[in-house]
Amino acid sequence: MLIASFINLGALSFKSMKNTFFFCLVLIFCHLTAITAQAQSSTNDPKAEAILEAVSKKYKSIVAFHASFLYTLESSGNTKESYAGDLTVKGAKYRLKMGGQEIINNGTTVWTYMKESNEVNITNHEPEEDELSPAKIFTVYKKGYKYVFTEELKEKGVVYEVVDLIPENRNNQIFKIRLFINKKDKSIKNLRVFEKSGNRSYYTITKFDPDDTIDEKPFVFDKTKYKGIEVIDLR
Fold first, then answer.
1. Tell me: the pLDDT tens digits for 201-210?
2. What is the pTM for the complete model shown?
3. How far is CA 182 from CA 26, 62, 87, in A?
4. Measured at the alpha carbon of residue 119, what is the angle toward residues 20 and 207, in degrees to the nearest 5?
5. What is the C-alpha R_g of the chain?
6. With CB atoms counted within 10 Å of each terminal CB, which end of the chain scores lower, N or C?
């Protein structure tokens, strides 16, 4: 289950954070090549296919980037929480900061830092079959979704093309993912996840900077920067 029915960010586990936030962020920022391949199915909207192909063309050469985003959760209980986050990606490596936690994955080792307890857990990177990462995002969407163009809308002088991704599996807790795509430059500005439980998750890109000069430093945890940190090595 990719999106939990409600997420307590104060006690967010590594796996739930990875499966929830990273799923949506990778969808936003990565190439979307596999999405457009599936969109060629006759069951999908040709206009949605054309839009996604244009988005893919824009992003397909980006292998490293920095991004900032705002995550907002509106729960079915009428509560609302918002958190800012940052993501750095280079190939299959990533560093995600959000909600008082930080996850660093260099492809072989994973560091999960929790600010509140000043603690870092170190584990080997042992990808599960259903784990999402920049390296696997190209195949994970080859099946399972259909795509529909819904509308064009204008906000603050910018025209957005709105495309819905609908899971073909009716047992999926998510019943719709909505993309807001800048019509002019084909960048994705906003993504919304709709759950059957009534929860709504919103991801807004506040900054996106492709950067081919990113070195390996962001993908290694430097414990010397955290005074008094407790290191728990689970390898």
1. 888 889 989 9
2. 0.73
3. 18, 18, 21
4. 45
5. 18
6. C
